């Protein structure tokens, strides 16, 4: 049996700091919202300019057009995003609030600690970026700064994590409601990842996997050395999911799993493990497990062959598919984890021992890697090496939840 709780009492990497009281944005001088950090999406056009800094605007445009990319579309969506960003900045400033603007490249710990409110502008990816950096472990000060997002392109972006789409054009009204407390506080559970043993001894070096910005992340200031045999809490909390598996999708991921307090460690082979929160259940978890209308229709046809004509003839496959897929989603504040073993091999001796379902709920999940070139990826962006022998524990704690607001009237 794994006595993990005893080991985690010695978790290193961070000092325990009591969480500060949640700010109520009101009219009283001590409670008034004073500092807002805008975390702006890095647009494709901005990325191209950063990547080709030696080129003039004219040369860059020619190069982009020559490779068949629609430059006019890049420019249009860049200005569309910047228009919303400018409106949000101006609206807060008109209320006497100090504003800083950062993006994926320029975001830093000092700015995050400075802010009373973090406002991502873009899509869900930008929200996840801001939420990850708003972790009390990353900030190392116990501060719970609320995160409230604006969708800068609601026609192309679902923006489930952002404010309702009407506030993309009604920015002043959204800011007014934030300042006057006309909203409901909302807590979204997040996953805490603890590395165990040898994986925690050397300081982990994460990689940012964003499509426009793939490079190592520097966070030495929040990662103190861990002595051999101890554990280390990673500074980033997962709002959507933690994925563990081989980086090359064609390669089988070999993982050992232990669910909750079970004494059984199950050896699995699959295309990777996805561990999701309620917030993430609308995203990758649903995509992995959804049933199409064709799947349901095939099942109904098989049952009809065994039972004959009858009540099944009146069942609409599309409605069954919709209901099944809707049931994959669970509340954002739910303290449970939902794990999904993607394309688990269930032939011969696998899994070993038998009995572990490919999907289920858990309070904690222990994972040991037997992989060759694998990563532990937080919210599809922050990746840590997780190769043979690496071990981790995934858990949810109430004090780790993300504080945001709900204006969905």
From TrEMBL:
<keyword id="KW-0547">Nucleotide-binding</keyword>
<dbReference type="GO" id="GO:0005524">
    <property type="term" value="F:ATP binding"/>
</dbReference>
<keyword id="KW-0521">NADP</keyword>
<comment type="subunit">
    <text>Homodimer.</text>
</comment>
<dbReference type="GO" id="GO:0006741">
    <property type="term" value="P:NADP+ biosynthetic process"/>
</dbReference>
<keyword id="KW-0496">Mitochondrion</keyword>
<dbReference type="GO" id="GO:0005739">
    <property type="term" value="C:mitochondrion"/>
</dbReference>
<dbReference type="GO" id="GO:0042803">
    <property type="term" value="F:protein homodimerization activity"/>
</dbReference>
<dbReference type="InterPro" id="IPR017438">
    <property type="entry name" value="ATP-NAD_kinase_N"/>
</dbReference>
<dbReference type="InterPro" id="IPR017437">
    <property type="entry name" value="ATP-NAD_kinase_PpnK-typ_C"/>
</dbReference>
<keyword id="KW-0418">Kinase</keyword>
<protein>
    <recommendedName>
        <fullName>NAD kinase 2, mitochondrial</fullName>
        <ecNumber>2.7.1.23</ecNumber>
    </recommendedName>
</protein>
<dbReference type="GO" id="GO:0003951">
    <property type="term" value="F:NAD+ kinase activity"/>
</dbReference>
<comment type="similarity">
    <text>Belongs to the NAD kinase family.</text>
</comment>
<comment type="function">
    <text>Mitochondrial NAD(+) kinase that phosphorylates NAD(+) to yield NADP(+). Can use both ATP or inorganic polyphosphate as the phosphoryl donor.</text>
</comment>
<keyword id="KW-0067">ATP-binding</keyword>
<dbReference type="GO" id="GO:0019674">
    <property type="term" value="P:NAD+ metabolic process"/>
</dbReference>
<keyword id="KW-0520">NAD</keyword>
<dbReference type="InterPro" id="IPR016064">
    <property type="entry name" value="NAD/diacylglycerol_kinase_sf"/>
</dbReference>
<dbReference type="InterPro" id="IPR012355">
    <property type="entry name" value="NADK2_mit"/>
</dbReference>
<keyword id="KW-0808">Transferase</keyword>
């Amino acid at each position: 049996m794994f006595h993990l709780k005893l080991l985690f009492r010695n978790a290193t990497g961070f000092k325990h700091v009591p969480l500060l009281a949640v700010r109520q944005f009101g009219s009283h001088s001590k409670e008034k919202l004073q500092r807002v950090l805008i975390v702006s999406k890095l647009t494709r056009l901005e990325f191209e300019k950063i990547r080709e800094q030696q080129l003039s605007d004219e040369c860059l445009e020619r190069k982009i057009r020559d490779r068949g990319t629609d430059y006019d579309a890049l420019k249009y969506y860049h200005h569309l995003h910047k228009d919303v960003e400018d409106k949000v900045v101006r609206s807060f400033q008109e209320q006497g609030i100090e504003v800083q603007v950062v993006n994926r490249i320029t975001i830093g710990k000092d700015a995050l600690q400075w802010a009373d409110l973090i406002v991502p502008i873009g899509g869900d990816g930008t929200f996840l970026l801001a939420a990850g950096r708003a972790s009390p472990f990353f900030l190392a000060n116990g501060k719970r700064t609320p995160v409230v997002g604006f969708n800068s392109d609601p026609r192309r972006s679902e923006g489930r994590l952002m404010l309702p789409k009407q506030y993309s054009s009604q920015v002043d009204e959204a800011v007014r409601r934030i300042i006057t407390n006309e909203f409901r506080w909302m807590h979204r559970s997040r996953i805490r990842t603890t590395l165990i043993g040898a994986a925690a001894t050397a300081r982990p070096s994460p990689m940012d996997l964003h499509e426009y910005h793939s490079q190592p992340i520097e966070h030495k200031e929040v990662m103190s050395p861990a002595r051999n045999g101890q554990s280390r809490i990673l500074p980033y909390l997962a709002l959507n999911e933690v994925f563990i598996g081989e980086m090359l999708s064609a390669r089988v991921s070999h993982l050992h799993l232990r669910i909750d307090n079970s004494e059984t460690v199950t050896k699995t082979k699959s295309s990777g493990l996805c561990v999701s929160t309620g917030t993430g259940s609308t995203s990758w978890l649903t995509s992995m497990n959804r049933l199409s209308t064709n799947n349901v229709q095939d099942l109904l046809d098989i049952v009809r062959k065994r039972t004959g004509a009858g009540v099944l003839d009146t069942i609409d496959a599309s409605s069954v598919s919709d209901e099944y897929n809707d049931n994959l989603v669970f509340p954002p504040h739910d303290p449970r984890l939902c794990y999904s073993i993607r394309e688990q091999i269930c032939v011969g001796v696998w899994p070993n021992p038998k009995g572990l379902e490919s999907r289920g709920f858990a309070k904690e999940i222990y994972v040991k890697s037997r992989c060759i070139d694998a990563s532990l990826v937080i919210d599809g962006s922050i990746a840590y090496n997780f190769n043979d022998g690496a071990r981790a524990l995934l858990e949810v704690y109430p004090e780790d939840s993300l504080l945001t607001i709900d204006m969905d009237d």
